[in-house]
Specification:
The protein is an alpha+beta fold. Helix content is 28%, strand content 27%. Strands 2-7-6-4-3 form a five-stranded antiparallel sheet, with helices on both faces. The protein has a two-stranded antiparallel ribbon with strand order 1-5. The radius of gyration is 15 Å and the shape is globular. 31% of the residues are buried.
Length: 158
Amino acid sequence: MRITRYWMTGCMALILLGAGRWPQRDEQEEEREGQRASIALTSRYNVDETVRQIERSVRRNGLPVLLRTAVRPPHGADQTDEAKVLVLGDEGGQTPVLQAEGQATPELPWKVVVRPGVDGQAEVLLTDPRSMAPPEGVSPQTASKVASLIKLVKNAIT
């Protein structure tokens, strides 16, 4: 049995560690141990405009953006353009972190990744918030806002 730690943090070093990895397509598309489903959406905008639209939408709906950063692809990858990462938080400036037994890098389930797609559009990757319960300490208001994240993102990018 794999033990998973799940907690809230505002530690920027930990958030940067979790957000700083180039997203691997197979990691985003498969469910790990049936716990976390991932969503991939296509934006009609380029990467920068997609990030702006998503950021405006989530902020307007009460979800703070704790971190906005860029992630470079690994050396030798086919892709040369950066991915942009938004890490969302609660009203207290914290975000949940997951770490499975034996997993070196923590996961950020309230992370939205925007990377270059085909024909100048962007691909948006996020964890389906319906696939996991919010950690202890998350207010019902924040949990409701996070539950509507897919709808917020879809409305922002279409």
